[in-house]
Specification:
globular, alpha/beta, 6-stranded mixed β-sheet
Length: 228
C-alpha cells in the first residue's frame, strides 16, 4: 500500500495554486494521471521521487519516504523513473546504461529480451530511434526492481506505431514484475488499455478517481483536448 498526503504551493497554468493530494494506491496497481498542462502532474511524480520537497506524508509499504521530520533521499527510495526525454548516458551502450544502475546481467538480459532490444545491446544509444531509446529508459528504470515505477509521458514524443509497441512493452513488464506504477499521460487510448485506475488532476486536486470505463465512458470527467 502507498499512502500519499501532500501539499505544495505551485504556480500553475492559471496562476498560484495548491497541489493537495490525499490518495491510496494498492500494491501492483497501475495508475494513470491525467489533467491539463500545469495541473500538477509532473510535480506529484517528482515529490514521490524525492526530487522536490512538499509538506505532508508519503508512506510506501510501511516505510516513510516523506514525513514531518523526514525526507528520504531519491537514491534511498525504491523507485524507477522514466522521463519524457529519455535521460540516457549517450556515451554508453544499451547494456552499459542498464549495468550502470545494477550489474545484474541476468536481469538486464531478461529486460532486453522482453523489449526486443537484445540485438542492440552493444550499440551506443545515440544511434537508436526514439522508440528504442524510450524502451532502454524503461529497462533501466526496472533494473532495481522498484517498488514504485514513475513515468512522465513516456509515449508522447513517439509516432503512433512506436507508441503502440511501447504500450505493449509497458503492459508486459508491469504484469511480469508486478510493480506499482504511476504514469502521466494525455492519451485516452493508452490510459484506457493500461490503467487500473485513472486520476484526473485539476488545479492541483484529484477531481476524479475511477476505472478507465468510469472516467472516459460513464462520467466523462476528461473533457480537455487529448492526444490520440
Amino acid at each position: 500500500m502507498i499512502d500519499i498526503k501532500i501539499q505544495k504551493n505551485l504556480h500553475g497554468s492559471h496562476g498560484d495554486m495548491d497541489l493537495d493530494v490525499n490518495m491510496h494506491i494498492a500494491q501492483g496497481e497501475f495508475i494513470v494521471l491525467m489533467g491539463e498542462s500545469g495541473s500538477g502532474k509532473t510535480t506529484l511524480l517528482r515529490v514521490m521521487a524525492g526530487l522536490e520537497q512538499a509538506q505532508g506524508n508519503v508512506e510506501v509499504e510501511g516505510v516513510t519516504w516523506l514525513g514531518s521530520h523526514k525526507m528520504l533521499p531519491p537514491q534511498q527510495r525504491e523507485i524507477g523513473f522514466v522521463f519524457q526525454d529519455y535521460a540516457l548516458f549517450d556515451n554508453m551502450s544499451v547494456e552499459e546504461n542498464l549495468h550502470f544502475v545494477n550489474d545484474d546481467k541476468a536481469l538486464a538480459k531478461q529486460l532486453l529480451t522482453m523489449t526486443q532490444l537484445s540485438g542492440l545491446a552493444t550499440r551506443n544509444v545515440k544511434g537508436l530511434s526514439g522508440g528504442q531509446k524510450q524502451r532502454v529508459s524503461l529497462c533501466r528504470a526496472m533494473m532495481k526492481k522498484p517498488k514504485l515505477l514513475l513515468m512522465d509521458e513516456p509515449l508522447s514524443a513517439l509516432d503512433p506505431a512506436m507508441r503502440e509497441n511501447l504500450k505493449e512493452e509497458i503492459r508486459k513488464l508491469h504484469k511480469t514484475f508486478g510493480t506499482t506504477t504511476i504514469m502521466v499521460s494525455h492519451d485516452t487510448d493508452v490510459s484506457y488499455h493500461l490503467a487500473d485506475r485513472v486520476w484526473v488532476l485539476d488545479q492541483g486536486k484529484v477531481i476524479a478517481d475511477g476505472s478507465p470505463k468510469e472516467i472516459f465512458v460513464e462520467t466523462h470527467k476528461v473533457t480537455y483536448t487529448l492526444n490520440t
